[in-house]
TrEMBL record:
Subcellular location: Cell membrane
Positions that bind substrate: E65
Protein name: Diacylglycerol kinase
Membrane topology note: Multi-pass membrane protein
Biological process per Gene Ontology, one example term: phospholipid biosynthetic process
Residues holding a divalent metal cation: E72
Main location class: membrane
Transmembrane segments: 29-47, 53-71, 92-112, 132-149, 170-198, 210-231
GO molecular function: ATP binding; kinase activity; metal ion binding
Length: 235
């Protein structure tokens, strides 16, 4: 059925994007990453060319994710039962998203890392100059707060599911500690990337939703930073 007019075409296009956002966890994660990267880009005073490269990488990921969603819907319509070729088509579409994500990581590294490298050590030095045992203290407190929140909300089990994600909290607590102790831009980037992989695995496995892993990640970061700051002030 053809669209009646240009306005209707825009409405249906927006409906498609909304559907993709509501039904696809990966799209919601990509959108969250977009907000974080754009905010970081504004704070780093990128040139117009650098910003265009970052913007292109972001849009490329979002476009491939929407195409992947459309292909999956079409394949499920024409092949509701399992078929090897249907599986191949879905895998290839997912591979396209992976390539776009790798491309975005490469562009982000080459554009953002030179900007972050001189800033990050100064930021870390302003936060903490402390021994490594604070990492264990911070992680222990993160686990404690996660268990308290889960008991308070009555969701999930102590070490599985529920609000917030304990794995995300511990992963980003450890990543934050690594960032503060190493004071190296590349090490910090790798640590945060590993934290994001842990978060992605919890969402992909259906154990947590995006809100639960985001809150867990923020909790891990805030508690760890607080512990390091307290040590700097009173240690």
């Amino acid at each position: 059925m053809k669209n009646r007019n240009l306005l209707e075409s825009f409405n249906r296009a927006i409906d498609g994007l909304v559907y993709c956002f509501r039904t696809q966890r990966n799209m919601r994660i990509h959108c969250l990453g977009t907000i974080l990267v754009l905010g970081l880009s504004l704070g780093l005073n990128l040139t117009k060319t650098e910003f265009l490269f970052v913007l292109w990488a972001i849009v490329f990921v979002l476009v491939t994710e929407t195409i992947n969603t459309a292909l999956e819907a079409a394949i499920d319509l024409f092949s509701p039962r399992y078929h090897p070729l249907a599986a191949v088509a879905k895998d290839v579409a997912a591979g396209a998203v992976l390539l776009a994500a790798v491309n975005a990581l490469a562009i982000g590294y080459f554009v953002l890392y030179p900007k972050l490298n001189p800033v990050l050590p100064k930021l870390i030095d302003s936060i903490i100059n402390s021994p490594a045992h604070l990492t264990l203290i911070a992680m222990g407190l993160v686990v404690f707060f996660v268990l308290v929140l889960k008991l308070s909300t009555g969701t999930g089990r102590p070490f599985s599911g529920g609000m917030p994600s304990g794995h995300a909290a511990v992963a980003f607590s450890l990543a934050t500690a690594i960032v503060m102790i190493s004071k190296d831009g590349l090490v910090a980037t790798l640590a945060l990337f590993l934290g994001l992989m842990v978060v992605q695995s919890r969402v992909e496995g259906g154990i947590h939703n995006v809100a639960e892993v985001v809150i867990g990640s923020v909790l891990g970061i805030l508690v760890t930073v607080l512990i390091f700051q307290l040590y700097q002030r009173w240690g």
